[in-house]
Specification:
Oligomer: single chain
Shape: globular
Largest sheet: 4 strands, antiparallel
Distance between the termini: 27 Å
């Protein structure tokens, strides 16, 4: 990464959004780096929780073994399909099998969501998350993630639309935290004119 761009952004960010935490970034690279990876997951763990360390300045390297959540594996591109019971998990459940979260009214609606899913495979790759000020000339970030207060979110929304002639320079697709910050931004990178993704984590 060009560290002049990194440092200029930090100066401008501190001027126009004082007191706001710096964004974090991530990129993908082939597995096998020398950097320490997150330990293999034991039991269920959400990768969004791991990002708290990155927000405090630590580097986080994730591969398939560090993710235990089925949704995380799916949205990070390590699994091509969801389990057959996911349609019930996201809707009203299946007695004796899975408790329903009731995000969607029916399993058929979940099927419709999956029918529109664009896979972005990550097999053989690992994700490297770093806070913006920790980036070096060796880094090649693909995505920048902001954890923003409402007034900062408003500024970012305006900035994302600054060089767009259309009305949808920002999209807000339904999904989990990892889909909002990993999957959908990676899908957008495939577009000729990528859009910013608004999500909640």
């Amino acid at each position: 990464m060009d560290t002049e761009i990194r440092d200029r952004f930090i100066r401008l960010w501190q001027t126009y959004c004082p007191g706001t935490e710096l964004p974090i970034s991530f990129g993908t690279r082939k597995e096998g780096s020398a950097e320490e990876k997150a330990r293999p997951a034991k039991g269920w763990k959400c990768i969004i929780c791991d990002l708290a360390k990155v927000r405090k300045g630590r580097t986080l390297v994730l591969d398939r073994t560090a993710i235990s959540c089925a949704g995380g594996l799916y949205y990070c591109g390590y699994d091509a399909k969801r389990s057959e019971n996911f349609r019930y998990f996201l809707s009203y459940g299946k007695p004796g099998v899975v408790e329903g979260e009731r995000y969607k009214k029916t399993p058929e609606i979940v099927d419709g969501i999956d029918a529109h899913h664009t896979a972005v495979p990550a097999e053989g790759k690992e994700y490297v998350f770093k806070r913006w000020d920790m980036l070096t000339t060796d880094d090649n970030p693909e995505i920048v993630i902001f954890f923003a207060r409402p007034e900062v979110l408003s500024a970012l929304f305006t900035l994302a639309n600054y060089d767009q002639s259309g009305p949808d320079g920002v999209i807000c697709p339904f999904g989990s935290g990892c889909s909002s910050i990993i999957h959908y931004p990676r899908v957008e990178l495939k577009r000729e004119q990528p859009r910013a993704v608004l999500g909640d984590v």
